[in-house]
Amino acid sequence: MNPKEIMQIFADNAYVRTGGSQEELRCAEYIREKCAQMGLQAQIMPFPVDMATIQEATLTVDGQEVTCKGYLCAGSAEVEAPFYYLRDTSAVSLAQCKGKIVMIDGYLGYWKYHDLLDNGAVGFITYDGNINYADEDIDQRELRSYVSKGEKIPGVNINAKAAMELIRKGSKNAKITLKQEEYTGESRNVILDMPGEVDEYIILTAHYDSTSLSQGAYDNMSGSVGLLGIAESFVGKPHRYGLRFIWCGSEERGLLGAKAYCQDEEALKKAVLNINLDMIGCIMGDFAATCSTEEALMHYIQYMGLELGMGVRTRQDVHSSDSTPFADKGVPAVTFVRRSPPNTGTIHNSYDTMALVSGEQMAADIAFITAFTGRMANAVCCPVKRVIPDCVKEKLDIYLCRKRDKS
Ligand SMILES: [Zn+2]
């Protein structure tokens, strides 16, 4: 795949494609068609996801309406209560949530949401965007089922400028009205098998969905193109281990495609390694590999970088991406990422476009990951042991909300 062909794929997919949407399906069909053009037969595998249609979402603070988007899957309710800004999760701040509509910083994770519930909050407000950006964009957020565990209070998302204004004005009272229809919809993984000489295989993953404001070029059409490039390089070339490519749906909604796939524990028994691509090919920034397995893989990748002329930062950790459900099921995993400095590339907003990536950098990153895949796929015996060390297991427990991070 040459730089021009690579950039054409970005151009063909320059649209928002959230998990479970028709646009996500359109992109899945595009990927399947690209495989077909290489003579490869990929399959679209659907899985169920929570969906909702918002009928009404309003936030009124001290009699003034604040532009907002209602949280999907957060139920339907109308609440009016004192407004409170939770600046931290110290006991003294949490104690002041009782009976209030609480505004928080950052994402609404499992522990933060349950802190709100446990301390008697009746509604919540989050904000995103950046006060320095010209836009007034508001991301469409959802109350994920693994966060709510069925306990729902209404919430809205607003722009950071509006959030700052609420605090500057010393806001006192808030009212949230949220009405929506919730239902079960469908997202999908696209799966391509390239069998090897033995029946064990390497699973290569990259998500192709985006968040609500984003064309998701860098995050993660780049990784999706990467998988196409790797697949193309193996066409007509026999390899020892099989290669299973999975373009994952609904990663941005909580790794749902990878989690759905990993429910098939029988299929995972023959998986020796997961190679995940999440954000490559950006014009600026360094190249990194997160290894959710024993340390030896980090050193191997560093040596490969020296051999092939690519600087690679490696760490032993859990990556917030599709590799994590695999590692959690005992499959050693590595995520490759080229990390853009924040001032030359941001994600999950309307600025994540193909302007952040270049065909040349994409080709270079794909070449490196292809070389790594080739070494693993043609190994007499896959060098990565099927081991998830205790320090990685501990991080998995924290990332997957089974244990609270005490640090
Ligand atoms: Zn991503």
Quick rundown:
The protein starts with a helix and ends in an 8-residue tail after the last helix. By secondary structure, the protein is of the alpha/beta class.
Count of the domains: 2
Low-confidence stretches: none
Instruction: Give the helix/strand class.
Output: alpha/beta
CATH classification class of the largest domain = Alpha Beta
Written account of the structure:
This protein has 407 residues and is an alpha/beta fold. It folds into two domains: 261 residues, Zn peptidases (Aminopeptidase); 127 residues, Glucose Oxidase, domain 1 (3-Layer(bba) Sandwich). 31% of the residues lie in helices and 27% in strands. The protein is built from 13 helices and 14 strands. Strands 1, 2, 3, 4, 5, 6, 7, 8, 9, 10, 11, 12, 13 and 14 form a 14-stranded mixed sheet that branches. Helix 1 packs across helix 12. The termini are far apart. The relative contact order is 0.16. The model has no long low-confidence stretch (mean pLDDT 97).
What's the arrangement of secondary structure elements?
Blueprint: H1 3-12, H2 22-37, E1 42-61, E2 64-66, E3 69-70, E4 77-86, H3 91-94, E5 101-104, H4 110-118, E6 123-128, H5 145-148, E7 155-159, H6 160-168, E8 173-194, E9 201-207, H7 217-234, E10 242-248, H8 256-261, H9 265-268, E11 271-277, E12 286-292, H10 296-308, E13 313-316, H11 323-328, E14 333-339, H12 359-377, H13 390-399
The structure holds zinc ion.
